[in-house]
Specification:
The complex is a heterodimer of chains A (about 110) and B (about 120). By secondary structure, chain A is mainly β. Chain A is built from no helices and 12 strands. In chain A, β10 and β11 form a beta hairpin. In chain B, the strands form 2 sheets. In chain B, strands 2, 4, 5, 6, 9, 10 and 11 form a 7-stranded mixed β-sheet that branches. In chain B, strands 1-3-8-7 form a 4-stranded antiparallel β-sheet, with no helix packed on it. With about 120 residues, chain B is mainly β. In chain B, β4 and β5 form a beta hairpin. The chains are: A mainly beta (about 110), B mainly beta (about 120).
Chain lengths: ~110, ~120
């Protein structure tokens, strides 16, 4: 069975701090995809990144970066110099062999001015 | 390009009633999938429709059903509502489907409260 664990339920930081959101996944398949989505207070989930299991390169997009490590089954997300607009719930998700997308329970990030 | 539109935004029903939620995908998207979000269970996959056919289904009772029309708009129906059905119901669209590796575009959801 596939599973995604986001152990951090809620994180509070002050603006300009760096913050890392953890994601640990479980699957026995060798082909899979990992995603991060952001859910702002408006409710809709917004796609942030997709990574396939054969590409362990880390990725940076502006203040966002992702660290994918197959050895520890982790796909962590770091926000550098956080801003108030980053306040949201962040979901990590796993897609295996074109089955249903499995989401973690989410991490609520609160960035204070 | 308009995003995914879900109606209504809020809904209040009583136990035993039935409810229909609507989702209009992004123009050109043929796949619509539905998710239930609750504080206790998180985001759970309900089902996916592609070109009017149900392609995948989550572990929900038969009270939860859906359909997709020829214009890709989708409706979700819940019959004999229970208190536990109170949740945010999210719809997502994509070109080829939630079971591919495409990114999904989500609507803002319908917040259903069952009293």
């Amino acid at each position: 069975a596939q599973k995604v664990t986001q152990a951090q339920t809620e994180i509070s930081v002050v603006e300009k701090e760096d913050v890392t959101l953890d994601c640990v996944y479980e699957t026995r398949d060798t082909t899979y995809y990992l995603f991060w989505y952001k859910q702002p207070p408006s409710g809709e989930l917004v796609f942030l990144i997709r990574r396939n299991s054969f590409d362990e390169q880390n990725e940076i997009s502006g203040r966002y970066s992702w660290n994918f490590q197959k050895s520890t089954s982790s796909f962590n997300f770091t926000i550098t110099a956080s801003q108030v607009v980053d306040s949201a719930v962040y979901f990590c998700a796993l897609l295996v062999r074109f089955q249903k997308l499995v989401f973690g329970t989410g991490t609520r990030l609160l960035v204070s001015p | 390009k308009a995003g995914v539109t879900q109606t209504p935004r809020y809904l209040i029903k009583t136990r035993g009633q039935q409810v229909t939620l609507s989702c209009s995908p992004i123009s050109g998207h043929r796949s619509v999938s539905w998710y239930q979000q609750t504080p206790g269970q998180g985001l759970q996959f309900l089902f996916e429709y592609f070109s009017e056919t149900q392609r995948n289904k989550g572990n929900f009772p038969g009270r939860f059903s859906g359909r997709q029309f020829s214009n890709s708009r989708s409706e979700m129906n819940v019959s004999t509502l229970e208190l536990g059905d109170s949740a945010l119901y999210l719809c997502a669209s994509s070109l080829m489907g939630a079971t591919t590796n495409e990114k999904l575009f989500f609507g803002s959801g319908t917040q259903l409260s069952v009293l």
